[in-house]
Write a structure and sequence with these properties.
Layout (H helix, E strand, L loop, with lengths): L1 H19 L11 H37 L8 H21 L7 H4 L4 H31 L7 H28 L4 H12 L1 H13 L6 H25 L6 H20 L1
Length: 266
């Protein structure tokens, strides 16, 4: 079981690493339309994963727990709502404390390339944390023997996040290369930004396995944190600049793909 969990925690990181490596084979600049498409696809995957892999299992687990304890099962929304809100607020606080990736032109004039590179990597690393947490919490639920979470369901989320991380890795490494970094260094920074995912997953796994009674709160917390990333970063990226429907279309495809994977395999 430990080896299965270890592989599951590493799958999202592999997606980031492979996506970051695309800078070696692509041109210096990432086409704006392509970036909108990649952001839209990633957003669709994360929204679907938050609903089917995290929020719905959280409410199902709460329902089973409440029924066993004689509590009205209609109140099973409480852990999902509370955890979701806390996850979004927590990421909002972190986002304020850690420098943001996007800078306006006046700010860019004041920042060196090193500072801008550091800020970008920090921001992306921050946004990878909830993804690692989400995978870790599902594997914790499966390891605990929860009937609402299966090994296939945890693996599906890990694969879905890896799919989402592939274009995200390219979105990281390509702009770094366009700012003057070599392809190898840009790829390295992209890969390093993804290391936090298995680490966050492992720490969440350790913590959640010791507090199984509040596992629904952890699941919904991860969902809230992921939705924050979608709203704060991915949606603005797919919508900024000249209007294009490609981001919306890829959002739809990403959402449907993750929904199908979760229902068919989970």
């Amino acid at each position: 079981m430990n080896w299965i969990i270890a592989k599951g925690l590493l799958i999202p990181f592999l997606g980031t690493a492979l996506g970051s490596a695309m800078v070696i084979f692509m041109k210096r600049d990432l086409n704006a339309t392509v970036q909108k498409m990649l952001s839209g696809f990633a957003a669709g995957v994360m929204v679907a994963a938050s609903v089917w892999s995290l929020l719905i299992p959280a409410m199902e687990m709460a329902t089973s727990s409440y029924m066993a304890r004689g509590i009205n099962p209609k109140l099973s929304f409480i852990p999902a709502a509370a955890g979701f809100c806390f996850g979004m607020v927590f990421l909002l606080i972190l986002d304020k404390l850690i420098p943001h990736m996007h800078l306006d032109e006046s700010q860019e004039g004041l920042k060196s390339n090193l500072q801008k590179t550091t800020m970008m990597v920090l921001a992306v690393t921050l946004h990878n944390i909830p993804e690692g947490m989400a995978v870790g919490i599902l594997y914790a639920g499966w390891a605990s023997g929860s009937a609402e979470i299966s090994q296939a369901g945890a693996l599906t989320l890990a694969l879905g996040i890896a799919i989402q991380n592939f274009p995200e890795g390219a979105i990281i490494s390509m702009p770094l290369h366009s700012k003057g970094l070599s392809k190898k260094r840009a790829c390295l920074y992209g890969v390093l930004s993804g290391i936090v995912e298995p680490l966050a997953g492992f720490l969440t796994l350790l913590l959640a396995s010791r507090v199984l009674s509040i596992l629904p709160y952890f699941l919904s917390f991860a969902a809230g944190a992921m939705i924050f990333v979608v709203v704060e970063e991915l949606v603005p990226e797919m919508a900024e600049g000249e209007h294009s429907n490609w981001g919306t279309i890829l959002f739809m495809l990403g959402f449907v793909l993750m929904m199908i994977l979760d229902i068919a395999l989970g």
